[in-house]
Design goal:
The complex is a heterodimer. Chain A is α+β, with helices and mostly antiparallel strands. Chain A contains 9 helices and 5 strands. By secondary structure, chain B is α/β, with parallel strands linked by helices. Classes of the chains: A alpha+beta, B alpha/beta.
């Protein structure tokens, strides 16, 4: 849904009662808009995968429909206060850098360059050395959780939007791989 | 055996536990940490069966000395066995958590020798996570039947949620499934201990539906008793699926619709405050819930005629199929502001599912006509 700036402006002067009365067209439209934004925030929190740099940086590159980069970054910095987080917005060609207690920095540069710049100022993080990084373990774990007798692709499609499936290759591979001819008979 | 192989075996062995909730109200103050518990459920992925993956759900080991007839880890089952060392498990979990693959840890285990020995190993892993790895996110800790009070207390201090599976609705039903577990001593007594502990997200339990010949009424009665007496946060129901090589491999699988109906009624008992006795009239001769939506059956029983949307009380509104607590609340709020619903089209935006609600509602004096009305005419 396209953001209706005039409607948002109108909403800021509307009373609480007006906004809560969903029988009116205006309140309904605003409610739907707010739902769209919170849905994107929720989905991004759920399906975003972070990559780990040896220098204690967690980074990812995403496409956004709404202006939620700061909200997402805040959620990750509060979850990982000891790490620096970088979120690249593909559409804006900008990177948002955040760390708990510091103000968010917006840099108009590609992720690789921002990462390189930051890493040159940091030392390797020994904590991250021993941890498992990569997709193999996840792929194995993901496959192990499926109960064949309960197969319900309709529910999967309802819960997991296709565009997120594209970003999560482990799920996509497992999903495709586990379908064979026997499933159709 | 590599860690990925172990996770594959132990993930597969642990997938039958259905609890996927990661809600916790615990507040974390320190900034020298990794992770935080969240107050709303986030699913990081979905499997082909449509179930959410939010937790890293593995067993410490799938070696088990119990003989539960429905379980793939029981003594009677041969198959690949594995065991994760606490450090191994902690490292694998932290890697997944930091990359945002999972929301927390769900740690369970087969009973290797005696429950205390196995629980000590599980606790070792959780302690490692909380101290060495400074993990402050969500942990669901499974209590094994027969675990000592001292170890449960330790688990209570470290985990967000504890659970012990009752598996069956009564002592006699459990004895049909396992000869080792004592329903009252090994399970209910442990639940009573947990009830008096401070565990942040409370305790949950799970029942296997259809592994013995139990009725829906027996299951719901037990769940209701647990909610009243054990301060249970939630009961989970898992439709029985025959697993090859188990002693119940010959038994028919329980239809998923049965599990779904039980969840429906459970939800209405917990969230709507509807008493179990109200469901008794809709049960069939075998004391099972009839086919179809239990709420629709309940509504047919409850309402002799459609209710006026502008006059019905909250308790009446939530009994109408297609109206949940949130939409009922919105309708009442609207009424308090002296605004009335005058046409059915105003109800959809309030969250009412008109397809299901229409036969039970009267809007502005009008009711939905039935085919039988025309037949009479």
């Amino acid at each position: 849904m396209k953001l209706n700036e005039s409607l948002v402006k109108e909403a800021s002067s509307a009373s609480q009662d007006e906004l809560e009365n969903l029988t009116t067209k205006k309140a309904r439209k605003l409610y739907e808009m707010s739902r769209e934004v919170s849905k994107e925030i929720h989905l991004k929190k759920s399906f975003t995968r972070l990559s780990i740099s040896e220098y204690g940086i967690l980074y990812t590159s995403l496409e956004f429909t709404h202006r939620i980069e700061h909200i997402l970054l805040r959620s990750f910095t509060s979850r990982f206060p000891t790490f620096t987080i970088i979120i690249e917005s593909k559409g804006k060609r900008a990177c948002y850098i955040g760390k708990k207690g510091k103000e968010t920095e917006e840099v108009k540069a590609p992720l690789r360059q921002v990462l390189k710049n930051l890493e040159s100022r940091l030392e390797k993080d020994s904590f991250l050395q021993g941890l498992w990084k990569g997709e193999e373990l996840w792929e194995n774990y993901y496959s192990s959780q499926y109960i064949k007798e309960r197969r319900n692709l309709k529910l999967l499609k309802k819960n997991m939007p296709k565009k997120f499936l594209q970003h999560n290759s482990a799920e996509q591979r497992t999903w495709k791989r586990s379908r064979d001819l026997r499933d159709y008979f | 055996m590599s860690i990925t192989q172990k996770v594959s075996i132990l993930g597969e062995a642990g997938k039958w536990d259905v609890c996927a909730s990661s809600n916790s109200l615990r507040k974390v103050k320190t900034q020298d940490r990794i992770g935080n518990p969240s107050s709303s459920g986030i699913c990081h992925s979905f499997t082909e069966d449509g179930r959410c993956i939010s937790l890293f759900k593995v067993l410490m080991t799938n070696n088990c000395s119990f003989d539960c007839k429905y379980c793939q880890n029981s003594t009677s089952c041969s198959g690949p066995k594995a065991m994760l060392e606490p450090e191994e498990l902690a490292k694998a979990f932290m890697g997944l958590y930091i990359q945002n693959y999972v929301e927390g840890l769900f740690l369970s285990s087969g009973v290797l020798g005696n429950p205390d020995k196995t629980t000590e190993k599980m606790l070792e892993c959780v302690k490692l996570l909380r101290s060495k790895y400074k993990f402050q996110g969500y942990i669901h800790f499974k209590i094994l039947p027969g675990t000592s009070r001292e170890l449960i207390k330790q688990a209570d201090e470290l985990a967000d949620r504890l659970s012990i599976n009752i598996e069956a609705p009564s002592k006699s039903r459990l004895s049909e499934l396992s000869s080792v577990k004592d329903y009252k001593i090994d399970i209910l007594r442990r639940q009573a201990w947990i009830k008096n502990m401070k565990v942040q997200s409370g305790q949950t339990t799970q029942m296997v539906v259809g592994a013995s010949d139990e009725t829906d009424h027996e299951i719901l009665k037990m769940a209701d008793w647990e909610y009243q007496n054990m301060k249970l946060k939630r009961a989970y129901y898992s439709a029985f699926t025959p697993v090859p090589k188990t002693l119940l491999h010959f038994r028919n699988k329980t239809p998923l619709e049965r599990e779904h109906r039980l969840y429906n009624v459970d939800f209405m008992m917990r969230k709507y405050g509807i008493k179990l006795k109200e469901f008794k009239p809709i049960l069939n001769e075998e004391n099972n819930l009839p086919r179809g939506d239990p709420k629709a059956h309940l509504a047919k029983q409850h309402f002799s005629e459609p209710v006026d949307i502008n006059q019905a009380s909250y308790d009446e509104l939530i009994r109408v199929p297609g109206i949940g607590p949130r939409s009922a609340f919105r309708l009442i709020r609207l009424r308090k502001k002296s605004q009335a619903i005058t046409k059915p089209s105003q109800l959809e935006p309030m969250g009412v599912v008109m397809k299901r609600a229409a036969p039970f509602l009267k809007v502005n004096g009008h009711i939905q006509r039935k085919v039988s009305d025309f037949a009479k005419a």
